[in-house]
Automatic annotation (TrEMBL):
PANTHER family: AB HYDROLASE-1 DOMAIN-CONTAINING PROTEIN-RELATED, ESTERASE_LIPASE_THIOESTERASE DOMAIN-CONTAINING PROTEIN. The keyword Hydrolase applies. GO terms for molecular function: hydrolase activity. This is Alpha/beta hydrolase. Keywords: Hydrolase. Residues 6-238 form the AB hydrolase-1 domain. The keyword Hydrolase applies. It comes from Amycolatopsis cynarae.
Length: 244
């Protein structure tokens, strides 16, 4: 059965990061819409200090509206899963069939992406924005250092990350998510790469991650680093293809 996917990348990435997944799903006969959020990927020239979460939510809502998309499997990686896809589904639940969180989970109402990290990480990011991001952009991480812990990583992938990732508009990470709860009625899948389903369920005991465990969840484990669409696109596409 043909399905409709909207694929939204996390921080610093554009639609290009989904290329392998997109090609695989299209080869299986599905309709696939990878999306670069404002200020990222090929839309980097549109980045502004005021590019906040609301702008990114509107990016996705407008894609679904103008492409007249319905029964969407809405896939969000990292930041996009934590705050973007829940916001979209909360406002247009009638267009969404299922929510898929790639190595992330939904943050609760009133929480910003920037609050996800430890106090030390939050302070470090704020300093990077101030010192290297002109006061409004978070530079990409040192990819060679991050990738050093990943065995057998394709050098071409590391080169793509170094060449194509761009600073992320910081206002989108500091904007709190506003949710009514309408999104909570939708079924959801967590595709977990850097943590396990058991860990996800345990995290639900903490207020910040309280949405990680209820009857609407399924989990699939795809062990690798935090960016499975880059090094395991076929495996990720296969899991997505299996969604009803």
């Amino acid at each position: 059965m043909t399905k409709t996917y909207v694929l939204i990348p996390g921080m610093w990435l554009g639609a290009w990061a989904w290329r392998g997944v997109t090609e695989d799903l299209r080869a299986r006969g599905h309709e696939v819409h990878p999306l670069s959020l404002t200020g990222l990927g090929e839309r980097v020239h549109l980045a502004r200090p005021e590019t906040d979460l609301e702008v990114h939510v509107e990016d996705v809502l407008n894609l679904m509206r103008f492409e007249d998309l319905h029964d969407v499997v809405l896939v969000g990686h990292s930041y996009a899963g934590a705050v973007v896809i829940t916001s979209v589904a909360d406002r247009a639940p009638e267009r969404v069939k299922k929510l898929v969180f790639v190595d992330t989970g939904p943050l609760p109402d009133g929480t910003a992406q920037a609050e996800f990290g430890s106090p030390e990480e939050q302070a470090r990011n704020a300093e990077l924005v101030a010192s290297a991001g002109e006061g409004w952009k978070l530079p990409p991480p040192p990819w060679a250092q991050v990738a050093a812990a990943v065995p057998d990583l394709d050098p071409a992938m590391l080169k793509a990350l170094e060449e194509r990732t761009v600073p992320h508009p910081w206002a989108s990470a500091t904007s709190p998510v506003h949710l009514t709860g309408a999104w909570e009625k939708l079924p959801r899948l967590g595709i977990l790469s850097s943590f396990t389903a058991e860990q996800a369920r345990a995290m639900a005991a903490m207020p910040l991650f309280r949405h990680m465990a209820d009857e609407q969840w399924e989990f699939a484990e795809l062990p690798t680093w935090h960016w499975p669409m880059l090094d395991k696109p076929a495996e990720l596409a296969r899991i997505l293809d299996q969604q009803g």
